[in-house]
Each structure stands twice: as C-alpha cells, then as structure tokens.
Amino acid sequence: GAVVSQHPSWVICKSGTSVKIECRSLDFQATTMFWYRQFPKQSLMLMATSNEGSKATYEQGVEKDKFLINHASLTLSTLTVTSAHPEDSSFYICSASGNQETQYFGPGTRLLVL
Amino acid sequence: GNSVTQMEGPVTLSEEAFLTINCTYTATGYPSLFWYVQYPGEGLQLLLKATKADDKGSNKGFEATYRKETTSFHLEKGSVQVSDSAVYFCALTSPNTDKLIFGTGTRLQVFP
Fold first, then answer.
1. CB contact, 8 Å: A11 with chain B?
2. Interior CA angle at B88 toward B87 and B92, to 5°?
C-alpha cells in the first residue's frame, strides 16, 4: 500500500527558532500534498495544499509567511514553521495523493515550542 | 458550504458489542465519503470509502453505506474488539477537488 513518512516524529524547540518538517511518499509519486494541523481532541484542519513545482495554496487564516511550504519533487514536501512560538505547538500531519483522490497520511509530527 | 457532522464521543463498549457511529454530511453535488481511523500515537489511516450513492465500503469488519436520501454514512461493526479502540473520523471530498473535510472525530473505547 501507499506509505507516507514524516520526519521528525517529534521536536522540541525554543521560541523564535524555525523548525522544518519533512513529508515523503515512499512508494508512489504524490502530485498533491496536504498539510494539516490537529489540536488535542479536535479534528484536522487543512492548512495548505501543494502541488509539485507550484506555490502552495493556503487556507483562509493560515499565515503563508509563517508556515512555509515547499514541494520540490513528487516525493517530498516540507513545512517550515518560522519564528515558532508556544501557540504554534501542535500536531502537524501531512498527506499525499497521486492520480487517484485517496489521501494517504503520514504519522504526524508533534511540535512543542518552549 | 460542505460539512461533516459526527456523533460526539466517547463511545464506550464492551468487547463483542455492536458498534454504530453516526455521520451525516452536507455537500453540493456528489461527494466521495470516507472513514479514517487514528490509533493512539499514530497518524490517520483510511478505513473505508464509498464514491457513489448506495455503495458500501467495508474493511476489517467495518461497513458503511453511502445513503444519499438521508445524507448519511454511518459506520458499523458487528462485534468490536479491544484493538478497535481509536478515534474515527468521517470525511468527504467534493467533486473536482482533493480537499478532505473532516468531522470532529469520535473516540471509541472498547473494554474487555
């Protein structure tokens, strides 16, 4: 089956630093990748959609300068949380889809900003 | 706009009990419908899906039928196990878009 990995699985950083999260599709080419944020005991909120080689499309209310998304290849997308603050602490999840509509999710990255 | 409504949890059951988790949706056109499961400490996994009215998705003993007349996609399992304890998310995608819209999730706890 389709496998999506994320790295790191968890990260702790100091306020003001930047953190990069990688999302890889291991056995298929992902034309589209999605980034979600999940708060404790809540549903997933879509942050942005990225297509390989194009600029990401951000959802309303998501700061594009704070959450930088790069989708440079068909198997890799990165999310960089710039100048992180405690309120950015959350569980970040990526998903990837190929030519079919099904999205395959990564295991998530837990970010804690001190 | 499009939306998904799930029953609030947690749902607490004894092993071998019958499970129903209700899901209704609001959408324009003919959406595809999904159930995802999130086990503790893990990411979401696709459990089953249905892409048109009256389709039944099934996997691991779970079933859900796409009911257009009632705009529902209820998840059922005849006999739950402790290992089914997880959070279950109902979701949809609208035609011509890859965007998934999730419900708030329902936590299932199964006790031996």
1. no
2. 140
Q: Are B38 and B105 in contact (CB under 8 A)?
A: yes
**Single-letter amino acid, residue B109:** Q
Interface of A with B in 72-101 (CB under 8 A): 93, 95, 97, 101
What string of DSSP letters covers A12-39?
EE-TT--EEEEEEESSS--SEEEEEEE-
Are the C-beta atoms of B75 and B90 separated by less than 8 Å? yes
Give dist(CA B74, CA B25) in Å, integer.
10
Residue of B nearest to A95 (CA): B44
Given an 8 Å threshold on Cβ–Cβ distance, is B99 in contact with A49?
yes
Distances (CA, A) of A78 to A8, A18, A36, A45, A73: 11, 13, 12, 17, 10
CB-based contact A105 B103, cutoff 8 Å:
no
Is B47 exposed, middle or buried (CB count within 10 Å of its CB: 0-12, 13-18, 19+)? buried
Contact B43 A105 (CB under 8 A): yes
In chain A (114 residues long), the average pLDDT of successive 10-residue segments reads: 90 96 93 90 87 89 94 92 95 87 88 96
